[in-house]
Amino acid sequence: MQYFAPISLSASGTNNKEKFRWLPREVIDEKSQDTGGFADDFVQKFTATGEAVGGVVQTEEESAVQLQRIVSRCSCQIYFCYFSDELKTDSSEDISVPPQIDPKHQSLNTDAIGIDVLTLKHNMLEATSNSEQYEMVVDIVNNLALFVDPIKKEMGEKRRRLRFECQLMGMAEMRAKIMRYQSELREIVSLGRYLERQLFYLSNEENTNTTSTEKIEYTEDQLIQEAEETKQRMLTVSEKLATYISSYKQRQVNQVKEFDEGKNAKKGVEVIRRFEVCFEDCIWKLTESDGQIALAQTQIRNFLYTRTVRDSNCGDHLFEVGSVRITNLLPDTIYKHALHRDETRQTRQPAIRLYVRDMPPVGGISVKEHFELNIAPMVAEITHRLFDKMMRFFFPGRNIHANDSLDGGDDESSSTFSFTRKIASTLSMRSNKSASEKLGLQKSLYEKDDIDRMKERADKVNHFMYIKIPEVSFVVSYKGNKDKNLIDVNQFNFIFPLCEYHEQNWTWLDLALAVKQRCKRVLVQQFMKQKLLRNRISNFSIEPTPQGVSEDEKKRIAVGITTSDQKSLKTPK
């Protein structure tokens, strides 16, 4: 398996699918190895254009999008286990039936049920990407792992909007709304039954009377169309009625505080689907926008990402990295290895472990029941140039040097923190918009109603019930942008503080800023403490000796012998 991606999405200025094409077989098939001369498996990849990772595929058409090999040829194993009833297969397909379990072994685990599992495994990956290609890959992975049926997604959005409408209503207004929808639903049901009777009478008349067949068929088509429209109206009104009744009951429960904790604890236990991505070894080279100039190289081993989907919109996310090493590839850098594990401290735990447990959304706001990040002791040797390049790589278009503040969460115009920007937003942000388009966008922003604002705010905010980042030690070396900087440190032992938060309504940006501010305060304290301690030790070591002490006394203090012992040693026997 190998992966290709366009070098730049914004180069063409439009998202035209016709410019993308299928690659020819000459590019996909592996070239025959040259057994003679100096060519071997390593050199052979660079003998032909585009064969190595990062190579550009030559195009015959000028209008076609230029593709680049972002992942070289690698082995891939896909495991797909499906137990749901939603999988539609033809009767002619040969479906392999799993063998029956022996009854004597089946009694050992009677509660075991089959769940849908999709596992993608790579043994060795060699990848390269620029910022836009990275966003594209993450967007595809998110859509694959978080895939929702478009019809179900549309229905969920409608229910979500109705719930927001219910939150803006009072109890009396909701009761009146429910009664009105009940009356409307009764009328629609009566109309549907009337149309069904008319169709029945019309079919009987058609069988008995053969004179006006065309008129009867025309009337029958009209009745069938009207009956279908009535059924659609009945489904829409019944769905709204069910949502209003559910919200009304929930409001009643919230007022009297009759929460059934036992039932809520049982929800979200059953596993529905699991998605896994793992690989043993990966070398990822981060490049500039041209796809050729390297910025850094990341080597990751024993990578594992697991997403478990449970009922009631619950789920778990587990992200583990066994070991990580980031190499600085910028020219004229004083630190070669930007980040790697501390070799002096041997631990079996993974270098990075992130665990997130989701609960059902409340009022459209995502609820994170548990958020925990564990990091092994690391050695970080960072320069200001590398930090600036990495921030522009992962967060393009953001002002990374702006003042950090947690007070801007209510500003609707403030940008939100996201790990990836969608491709459509990438194109819209990087393309040159006309004045009419910008004016239309500003008008649409002002024309939003309260429900749309509530939805946007709910999409931005997460409710973190518990956040924990344990304490960990770092050996930090930092070089600023100038030759001499006050903040330059070398082999500084920094203890990353324990970060623990409860019941916080934050965006991802707010969480990052809170951890950053916490680290800043602790870093200043530790920096000043170690600086003062070093100065005291250095002052003590160069302190001049007292003038009133003789040379013999100095020897006695240093060696531990008295002056009389020295005289006895000097006198000959």
Notable features of this structure?
single chain; 573 residues; alpha+beta; 13-stranded mixed β-sheet; two-stranded antiparallel sheet; 15 helices; 39% helix
Please sum up the structure shown:
39% of the residues lie in helices and 25% in strands.
Give an account of the 3D structure.
- The protein has 573 residues and is α+β, with helices and mostly antiparallel strands.
- Among the domains are: 1-69, no CATH class; 169-259; 543-573, no CATH class.
- The chain is built from 15 helices and 15 strands.
- It has helices spanning 25-28, 41-44, 103-106, 131-145, 150-167, 171-208, 213-256, 261-266, 384-394, 423-430, 435-446, 450-460, 508-541, 551-559, 563-570, and strands spanning 3-6, 67-71, 76-81, 116-129, 271-287, 294-310, 314-328, 337-341, 352-362, 365-375, 378-383, 462-469, 472-479, 489-496, 499-506.
- A hairpin with a 6-residue loop joins β5 and β6 (294-310).
- The longest helix is centred in the middle third of the chain and has 44 residues, at 213-256.
- The radius of gyration is 34 Å and the shape is extended.
- Residues 87-97, 407-447 and 541-547 have low confidence and may be disordered.
- InterPro entries: Hobbit (IPR045167).
- Pfam families: Hobbit.
The total count of strands amounts to: 15
Q: Rounded to an integer, what's the Rg over CA atoms?
A: 34 Å
The topology string of helices and strands comes to EHHEEHEHHHHHEEEEEEEHHHHEEEEHHH
- Termini, distance in Å? 92 Å
Query: Mean pLDDT, rounded to whole units?
Result: 72
Task: List low-pLDDT spans.
Answer: 87-97, 407-447, 541-547
The oligomeric state of the chains shown is single chain
General shape: extended
Helicity level, as a percent range? Answer: 25-40%
Strand content: 15-25%
Please summarize the sheet with the most strands. Answer: 13 strands, mixed
**Structural class of the helix and strand makeup?**
alpha+beta
Total DSSP helices: 15
InterPro entries: Hobbit
